[in-house]
C-alpha cells in the first residue's frame, strides 16, 4: 500500500458509496475476439425424437423434463416435442417437475427404449380445476374466495401482487401467486360486470400462518337509471373512479404511499397498484410517498390532479438509490514541533491537537466547512436518527485548563448554525463539605470536558463528562492531567435555550464506572454501548479498557467484552452493523494514534456469551492462532482486517491500520484508515533513522461489512484522502432507518419493581444464584508467589482477572462480603513541587511514587478506599440446587448509586474469591442475574430456581434473631444502619452504614499491645517500635525497598488484598491459612512455626485480616499545607443519594411527588432537607415545600402545588449528610393532568 493512490475522483467514489455496482467478468472477459468459422458437422443419423400430447390443462405452468435434462413449460392442451433427440437404443424417460396450480397431471407411456423410430405416444392428462388451495410452501399462503350473484359475464378481480382473474360464473377462485407470511394482501374489483355491481368482503388484511379463504364477492343488479325530467336535464348520476399506477426501481422493501383519502398502500416490489377507495368524479386526487424505502428515494409523477369521468391510471413512481453526504473531522497531520500528531485515543482521551475542523463532504464531491478551528478542535461527530443533525464536541483550546462542550448543527438547513447544548454549570467540587476555597474546586486546574454525544431514542443525548469532579484511583503520574474521571451523563435534546443543567435535565447516568468512559452510542435493542477503563483494585493500571453496555436509565451495567487481555490492547471506537454485529477498534493505547485492527463481535449467541480462552484466529496476523490474549473471548469474535495488527509495532508490511469504524448504508462500513507503519514507538521505529512515517489517515469504505475480511487494503474504496490532513471520524449523513431498517433504537421495557423495594426507595437488590457454579483461574500455573515481570506472561490472578486467594475448594466457600469503593473527589492537590515537605511525608504511602499533584488524603496498596457494607453467611446450603450443589444463593439490599463489588469469604471471614470490576445499582434495580462466581463460559444457574430466588426466609444465623430487620423477606438488608460482620459467635452488628479498617486507628494499637515488645531494632529484623530508620510500623510491614516482591505480594508480610495469603495474618491467627503447606513451594514465604503464640481477641484477629483484605489503608499524616482535611480514609466524602422517582422528565399526570434518599457513610441529616418548586418561565415565585410524609425506607411523598397544563416546572431537592456533604437533584417536567 506504500504506493496507494490517495486522491481518487471524489464524484466517482461517492457514487460507489451510493451504489457499489456488481461488476461482472474479469481478465479479458469484456474483450470481443474473432474466431475462425467452425467446420460443418456431419449429418446426425440414428437419433429420434420424443413427443406427446397434453389434455385437460386449464391452469398454467405445467413443467416436464426428459432424462436428457430438457425442460418444457406447457400452458395449454396440445402436443409437445423435446428439442434434444435420443440415440437409437437408448432409454428415454419423461417426468413432471412442476404441477400446474390447482391441477394434478399424470403421465402415460412416460418411459421406454428408442427403437428405430420417433416416440410419439407420451400422454399427459390433467384433472381438477378449483380444488382447495394447496398447502403453503415455505411460509407462502394462498388468497382465495367465492363469487355469488353473478348473472352477467366477466367480473375482473385483482390482487395487490398484480394477478388478475376473469370470473364468468358463481363459484370459487384462487389467485395463482401465493403471499409470503406476514405480508399484507388486498383484493379489488378491476372491472365490474355489465349491469351489475359487485362488492367485496374481507378484501384486505395480513397473511398470518394460513391460507386466506374468506374473500367474498357479492354481485347485485344495478337499479335502472331514472328517466330524465323535462328540461333543464338532470346531470348524470354521480360516479367514482379509481386511482392507480405503477412502481419501478424498487429494489428494497416497504415503500408506503398514501392518497389524499388517507388510504395507505405498502409496496414491496415493482408493479402496479390501485387504491381501493375510489374518487368521486370532479374531485381532486393526490398521491404522496408516506415512507421512503431503505436507501432509496422514490418520486411520484402525475401525483395530483382531478378525476374527470374516468379512472386515473398514470400515476408513476420511480425509485432511485439515494446519494449520501459524509461528515468527518479534518485533523491536522504533523505539527511544527512534532511529526507524530496527538489524537485522543485509548487511555489518553484528553490529548488533542489544535485545528481539527468539522467537514461536510457532499455527494457531488464538494465540501462545506461546518466548524473552522484554529485553536479549537472538533471531535466525536454523531448523526441524529432522522439523518438531519450532527452532534459533536468542541474543545476550545488544546490545554488541560480548556473546556469542551456539546454542540449540534442542523444539516438540512443551509445556514449550518451551531447550537450549543451544554454550558458551564461548574464542577461538583463544592458539594463536598471540606472543599471551601477556589483551590479546592477542580475548575481551578482544569476545564469541564463534555465529550462524545450520541442521541437516544427517548429524546435525550448521552455523553461523557468529568463534571462530577472525581479523580482516578490510579492516575499514573499526575492526578490533574490524567486523573480526571470521565463518566456517562444524559441531557434533554434542546434548541440551545436550556442553558443550565436544571433546564436541560442534565444528570449523571450511573456510578459503576470510576475511571474513563468513552464514546457511548445506542444499540438497536435500546442498550447503550461504551468503552470503559476498568482498572479496579490490584489489576494492571493500563490497557483495561473494554466494551460495556447499560440501559438508558442507568440500570443493567454489563460487560460485553472481557477486560482480561494480557497484551495491553483496548476495545474502543465501536459501531453496530445493520445485521446487529459490533465492530470495534482493537489497539495498543499509546503510540498507534488509536489505530489497529477491527474486531467483529456477534450481538448475541446461544448459551454463555464467552469462550474460555481465545477465539480461533486462523486469519489474524501474527497472533499464533489466537484472536486475542484474553482469559475469555466473546463467542464468534473475529478480525475483519487480518492483514494488520493491534500491537504496539509498525503495521505488518506497512499495510496500515484502522480506527473509528462507522456503519453506513447498504451494509457498508466507513473507516479511518492510514497506510504505512501507523506507529511511532522509538523501540520499534528507531527515531535516529526515522523508520516510521507520520499518520496519514483517510476515509475509506469496506463493502459488505457483515461478511468482509480485508486481507489486502487495496480492496478498500477510497472516499477522501488528502495528504495535507488526516481525515478521521467519518459518519454517513443518513437516517437510522436507511442504515438499520428501523426508525430508531428500541425503547426498553423495564422489569417490574421487586415488592421488597418501596416505590422510590434509593436502594436496589443484588444477588447470585450460586457461589459454587464457578470457573477456576484460567491459567496453566495459577497463583504463583512471584508472577512474571512481563505482563504478557503474568498469570493474571489479581492483575488481569478477578481473583482467587490461595488454594480454593468448594469447602472453603462460606459467606459473602459486599465492599463499597467510593470514588476520590477532587480537592486541593499536594504538589510535589510546591508542597515538597508535605509530599515527602506521604511518599511512603503512595502506591506509585511518581505521582505528582496528589489529590487523595490516604494511602492503600491498591489506591482505592474499600469499606464493608456487610458480611453474611450462605444460609441455604442444606438444600441441593438444580445443579446438584449445596444451595449457595443469596440476595441483599444495598444503597443505590454507590459503587461496590462482591467477595466470597471463608469461615474465618477472609477473602477467597473477589470480583475486580466496579458495579452499582440504580434506585429500584434488581440484579440477581449473576449465575455463578466468575461464570463466564459455563451455563448459569437460574436464580428463580434457588432458595433466594424463591424468597425462602433466612434462618439459622448464629447470634441473629429471626425477627431481626436485617434478614426479613429472604434478603440481607444492608441499608438499615446496622452492618452485619462475622465473629466467632456468629454475626455481630456494628452501627453505621459502612465499616472500614485503618492502620493508625485500628491496627497500630494491636501492634503496640502485642508486637512492639519483641520487634525492636535490637531483637528482630522487623522493627515495629520506630527505633529503626524506617519511619513507622506501617512502613516496616509494607517495606519492599529491595524490590524483592511483585504485586500482589507487596512485602514479606502482606499479599494484598489477600489476608488468607499474608504472613502477618498467619502469625496473628497462629497457622498457615492459604490451603498450602510450607513444603508445597520453595519460592514463597513460609509460616514460622517457632513464632510465639499470639493471644489476640477474635475481633483483633479479624480486624487485621479485614485491614489486609481491604487493601491496607492508612490516613496520611497531618500536613503543613492549609485545607487538607476531610478526605482521609476515615472521613466521609461520599455524597448522599437522592432519587426523584416522580415527577419524571416529560409530561406527568400524577401530582404526587415520590423521592427516596440514602447515604452509605455517616447517614442523612434530615433537618437540612430543602425542596423547592417553580415554573420554568419564572411567572411565579419558587415555593418551598416543607410538609411531606416520610416512610421507614427514607422515602418522602407529597402533593405538588397546582399546575397549568403543558407548562414546564422544576422540582429541586437538596439534602446534607451528617458530615456536611450535599447533594442537589432537579427534574424539569410538564403537567398534563
TrEMBL record:
Residues 616-626 have a biased composition (Polar residues). This is Hydrazine synthase alpha subunit middle domain-containing protein. InterPro entries: HZS_alpha_mid. Residues 628-637 have a biased composition (Basic and acidic residues). Residues 1-21 form the signal peptide. Residues 220-241, 616-654 are annotated as: Disordered. The keyword Signal applies. Keywords: Signal. Pfam families: HZS_alpha (PF18582). Residues 883-934 form the Hydrazine synthase alpha subunit middle domain. The keyword Signal applies. Residues 225-238 have a biased composition (Pro residues). The lineage of its organism: Bacteria, Pseudomonadati, Pseudomonadota, Gammaproteobacteria, Alteromonadales.
